[in-house]
Give the backbone structure.
Amino acid sequence: MPTNLRTASESDAAEISTLVNRAYRPAPHERRWTHEADLISGPRTSTAQVLSLFGPKSCILVLTAGSKIVACVHLLNGESSVYIGMLATDPTLQTQGLGKQMLMHAEQYATAHFNASVFEMSVLSSRPELLAFYQRRGYVCTGEIEDYPVSAGVGQPIIDGIQVVALSKKVENFSEK
């Protein structure tokens, strides 16, 4: 499948929101290994939330197949670190390496455009398979753990005790895995 990487624009916000919600909280027939629909209910994001991510220190990268967005990732530039979030791939295309590809693009973009020295991200504590995915790519748990951000409007936990675990990766450890 030929794909094209580009920086998203505000006109992509609705399609990105739909993609993220399908990836994180898909319908039962679209559930693959990366979903969290058994842990969190409700939408993961909205078009308004995606629109709020566009700014001078923030961008969304999208991977397209033809005119369709099939993967995305959000980058937020900090002082010396870049937060990588909202990594999502179309559920029907998962297990084809698009997530790895988008993570690599995010890291390369953060290094080239934001001069990042550290990449940061957060993962649900109840997702050991996802934590392992990122650890295989050089991310380490920082020891920072927070309660699930119910007030952020990103869904409601279905099970008790869900927390968010912080991960980081130093750029000198950067490699294309």
In short: The two ends are 20 Å apart (CA to CA). Strands lie at 4-7, 40-41, 58-65, 68-77, 81-89, 118-124, 140-147, 156-157, 163-170. The chain has one domain: 4-173.
